[in-house]
Design a protein that fits this description.
CATH topology: Vanadium-containing Chloroperoxidase, domain 1
CATH architecture: Up-down Bundle
Number of strands: 0
Structural class: mainly alpha
Largest sheet: none
Number of domains: 1
Distance between the termini: 62 Å
CATH class: Mainly Alpha
Helix content: 55-70%
């Protein structure tokens, strides 16, 4: 055994080699001795102590800043333009559609799961006019009620935005479908009453409807990220369901995501310009 004395960890030694009688200070957040001056530092928010990075509130603030960055619509616009050009010109990028469809069919056949098939059909149906539009309009009504209950101004904003988004969806999707007139994955020619498959109307309807609903409801509560997370899961679920069920090509879904992403970015940017006193005051 080592006979040399070892200093007590975390307790400063005095000149007489005796441990200090002063007990080490305990950090209130971790119940451990404070090793750095940050242990005595107060947090900038009661729910986000500065002594314990990373703080969840700050992470969500960074995410919100990234979503509001001008590079986001630029990337979405460029991606949408490239995909649209390839679809119109029957370019080599369409090979990605065929590869995704082939791999999905193989996976679907190997799993042969009725549960997954049923879930995929259910998710794809969420992009229909019903229930997506009623959810959008209902969110506008709920947001208006919460604004009225807390006595905040601009109570007309949520129903107006919800109704405008509901009208905007077909104005964006129908002309594009008619212009590209792209056949579906089954390869059947378009019928006179059909507009085409590009971009995906179900994807665009779901993304705009649930996304706008999340933005409107998020303005009435302190933490809006749960609404955003649920909306994002629904966007991804609807797109995955459409591809799994062989209802749409992958690029159809991707174009719907890009198109709706541009709409949601513009709306989120505009809502950020509203005065802070018109947003949630933490009552919800």
């Amino acid at each position: 055994m080592d006979s040399e004395p070892h200093p007590t960890v975390g307790v400063p030694a005095r000149d007489d080699n005796q441990a200090s009688a002063t007990a080490p200070t305990q950090d209130r957040s971790t119940a451990r001795p404070a090793q750095t001056p940050r242990g005595a530092r107060n947090g900038d928010h009661p729910s986000r102590p500065g002594a314990l990075p990373p703080a969840p509130g700050r992470l969500f603030a960074v995410s919100a800043w990234l979503l509001a960055a001008p590079a986001v619509p630029l990337l979405l616009g460029v991606l949408l333009a490239v995909v649209s050009w390839q679809v119109a010109a029957n370019g080599p990028l369409l090979g990605l559609d065929r590869a995704v469809r082939h791999d999905t069919a193989q996976l679907r056949g190997s799993l042969h799961s009725g549960v997954l098939d049923g879930l995929a059909h259910l998710l794809s149906d969420l992009g229909s006019t019903v229930p997506a539009i009623p959810v959008l309009l209902g969110a506008g009504v709920i947001a208006t009620w919460r604004l009225w209950r807390t006595g905040r101004p601009h109570r007309w904003l949520p129903p107006t935005v919800a109704a405008g988004a509901a009208v905007l969806i077909p104005l964006l999707v129908v002309p594009a479908k008619a212009w590209f007139a792209r056949p579906g994955p089954l390869g059947e020619p378009l019928q006179p009453h059909e507009w085409g498959w590009y971009p995906s109307g179900h994807t665009t309807t779901a993304a705009i409807s649930f996304g706008v609903a999340a933005l409107l409801l998020g303005r009435t509560v302190r933490r809006s990220w749960p609404f955003t997370a649920v909306a994002a899961l629904l966007w991804a679920g609807v797109g995955a369901g459409l591809i799994w069920c062989d209802y749409h090509w992958f690029l159809d879904v991707l174009a719907g995501w890009c198109l709706s992403g541009l709409v949601l970015w513009c709306l989120a940017r505009w809502l950020r310009w509203l005065p802070r006193h018109e947003r949630a005051d933490g009552s919800g």
